[in-house]
Amino acid sequence: xxxxxxxxxxxxxxxxxxxxxxxxxxxxxxxxxxxxxxxxxxxxxxxxxxxxxxxxxxxxxxxxxxxxxxxxxxxxxxxx
Length: 80
Prior knowledge:
Blueprint: E1 4-12, H1 25-32, H2 34-45, E2 49-56, E3 59-66, H3 69-79
Antiparallel strand pairs: 1-3, 2-3
């Protein structure tokens, strides 16, 4: 099975010329939900998923990549 990508949040970057990316983690934890982020981190430790920061031009987004097909259902039942 291919992995499934689920966008969690997105934002615009200020300076596209620098490789550094300033991420307001407290804001995105509040926006996504701290309980959800903690659940995702627990799933990451078991290798079921990973958080990815995708960057394209002046946009960036935090995405959840799910490797375990059973976790897709769990995610949608718990957090959608």
